[in-house]
Design brief:
heterodimer; A: 125 residues; 21% strand; globular; B: alpha+beta; 4 domains; five-stranded antiparallel beta sheet; Bact_response_regulator (chain A); phosphoprotein (chain A)
């Protein structure tokens, strides 16, 4: 079973991401984190096929979490995609700079989420 | 005297003569004779004082009172106005000559009129120079800019009061000092910039640099460095600085405000969009998953939710664009507006115009303006979008874009045959959330024209409504012409 770690402070967004990925692949198990505090420990433990990381979160933001994970060579092969509530060119550039494998904007519709799920499944799962 | 001596004395340029105790000439050389304006025969034997005006005789006689055997020589400088009209300043030495049986005066006079006049002239010129220097110093000291006059070794040769005060010193204390002794580490960068000017011979203007005198108040200055190349052996430079510390502080405050505004805009955008997305998606999920169990009228409610969300999203995005339109966001370049409009017409306007039987007429000539391509696209997309949005229901849409230029601006007019705008709303439409009249059927944020005006203002241009109460509306946009020749 493929493991996916989702780090997002919004319950709703985590739920929608899980719904979107599940619609494309049934054999996926999810680990949800509402902050990036213990992200490195959880990733080390779970060895997920992909980590989906929200950018804007209270406390430690997504970029800090990403930088921390990428600072450990052990996690070099784990794909991490960043997800954000709005399209920001600066955020997209920063995500690439810090070693993210992808950048997605949270879709404003169910159809958009389903499309996002398919995209993630076909690229990373 | 011997004929040889006479001959020598005759060729001498000084006025040489001798006269007996009765002051009668016994000898006069040619220069003396010429000075008196007479012949040698007329001079010899004549009474000395007979050549002087009557009112000067007593004065001249008094000279001979002090020439005695004990004090046989007198040197005097006197203005000699002769009866003949000769007028000169003579430097004369009169001596008493006593031989075995002869007692005579001998006089050697040098005409120093030219020298004295030259001296007067020099004195006058020196006074003028002193006055000019005093005036120049007053002018320099009255100028608020700090002015230094330096050599290529970083020595300060002269400076004005403002420059000295800025260093907490007097002009006299600074003049002659080396910049390295007065400005510490910063002196090196000042010197390097000076040397660039010396080497190139070209002035550097508008240099923004930190000002860090070892005494005095530190700050920021904007500096011009102008070379003086009159003497290549001793190069000089004029350094003129204006204190921009306050400006820099305001700039830093403004930057901080802009940064805060930008952060605020991002926050607003993100935090408002998140619940909006939740509302929209939840409504969609309800419709998808529970639609069969809900009454038929629920479909209309879902449609209303969707429209409301869509409107709110448009508002947020427009507001974000408005908030982010700042001087930093404008990248000015030469833009061919005609080409841009053609591109927009091909890409975006086809459906609204040609497919619906409408027309969009564009100018033929190249309109080269100074602007930011993306922002200009936004402005005209907004204006054309308004023409489409507010088109009249009973006739095909017609939009015409024309352009005229003057010395500085291109004036571009966008006219349509739509529903028009009330005269009373001609300014209100450019306000944030200001719309000309209620359009319950037409979705709009009320930000579009406010954003247009903001962007155009940032370009140094203007936008105004030029048609009032006409069947259509007509907007005139003025943008700065591109710097290069645009025909």
């Amino acid at each position: 079973m493929d493991k996916v770690v989702i780090i997002d402070d919004s319950d709703f967004d985590r739920k929608m991401i899980m719904k979107a990925i599940s619609s494309g692949r049934s054999t996926v198990s999810f680990t949800e984190l509402e902050s990036g505090e213990n992200a490195a420990d959880v990733i080390a433990q779970e060895c997920p096929k992909i980590t989906i990381l929200d950018i804007r979160m209270p406390g430690i933001d997504g970029f800090e979490v990403l930088a921390k994970i990428r600072s450990n060579p052990k996690f070099d092969d784990i794909p991490i995609v960043m997800i954000s509530g709005s399209e920001e060119a600066a955020d997209r550039a920063l995500a690439t700079k810090h070693g993210a494998d992808g950048y997605y904007v949270k879709p404003p519709s169910v159809a958009g989420y389903l499309s996002l799920g398919q995209n993630i499944c076909s690229h990373y799962l | 005297m011997s004929p040889t001596l006479n001959s020598i004395l005759d060729t001498h340029p000084d006025l040489i003569c001798r006269y007996n105790p009765s002051l009668e000439f016994t000898y006069a050389n040619l220069a003396m004779v010429e000075f008196l304006g007479a012949s040698k025969e007329e001079v010899l034997g004549s009474y000395l004082l007979s050549w002087y005006p009557a009112d000067t005789k007593a004065n001249i006689l008094s000279i001979y009172d002090v020439i005695t055997p004990e004090n046989p020589s007198q040197t005097l400088i006197q203005a000699s106005d002769m009866k003949t009209g000769a007028s000169s300043i003579l430097w004369t030495t009169i001596g008493l000559f006593e031989g075995d049986a002869v007692r005579e005066y001998q006089s050697v006079g040098r005409n120093i009129t030219a020298e004295v006049e030259l001296e007067h002239k020099l004195k006058s010129q020196t006074q003028t120079l002193d006055r000019v220097q005093t005036e120049l110093r007053s002018v320099l000291d009255a100028v608020p800019s700090r002015i230094w006059y330096k050599d290529d070794k970083n020595n300060i040769l002269r400076l004005n009061q403002a420059a000295a005060s800025s260093m907490g010193m007097t002009v006299a204390e600074v003049e002659g000092q080396n910049t390295y002794d007065l400005f510490g580490d910063a002196a090196k960068s000042y010197h390097e910039a000076d040397l660039k000017v010396f080497e190139s011979g070209v002035a550097i203007r508008g240099l923004i640099e930190a000002y860090t005198p070892e005494t005095g108040e530190p700050g920021w200055v904007q500096t011009d460095k102008i070379p003086f190349d009159e003497d290549p052996e001793e190069p000089r430079i004029l350094v003129v600085s204006t204190d921009i510390t306050e400006l820099k502080e305001q700039e830093a405050i403004l930057k901080s405000i802009n940064k805060n505004l930008d952060d605020f805009a991002s926050l607003v955008s993100h935090d408002l969009q998140a619940p909006l997305r939740k509302i929209a998606i939840t409504a969609q999920l309800m419709e998808l998953e529970l639609g069969d169990q809900l009454p038929k009228s629920a479909g209309d409610y879902f449609k209303d939710i969707s429209q409301g969300v869509s409107h709110m999203r448009t508002l947020i995005q427009s507001f974000l664009k408005f908030m982010r339109a700042s001087p930093d966001s404008v990248a000015l370049d030469t833009v061919n507006l005609t080409a841009l409009l053609r591109e927009m017409a091909d890409e975006e306007m086809t459906e609204a115009f040609s497919d619906a039987g409408g027309t969009l007429s564009l100018p033929d000539n190249d309109i080269l303006v100074r602007g930011d391509m993306d922002l200009l696209r936004q402005i005209f997309a907004n204006l054309l979008g308004n023409s489409i949005k507010y088109r009249a229901a009973d006739r095909p849409i017609e939009v015409e874009i024309t352009a005229k230029k003057d010395q500085q601006f291109w004036a571009i007019t966008v006219s349509d045959n739509g529903t028009g705008i009330d005269e009373n709303s001609s300014e209100q439409i450019f306000d944030l959330f200001g719309r000309s009249k209620p359009h319950k059927d037409i979705e709009g944020s009320g930000i579009g024209l406010a954003l247009c005006r903001r962007i155009i203002t940032l370009h140094g241009g203007t936008i105004e409504l030029v048609s009032k109460n006409t069947p259509g509306s007509s907007f005139r946009v003025k943008l700065n012409r591109a710097r290069q020749s645009d025909g």
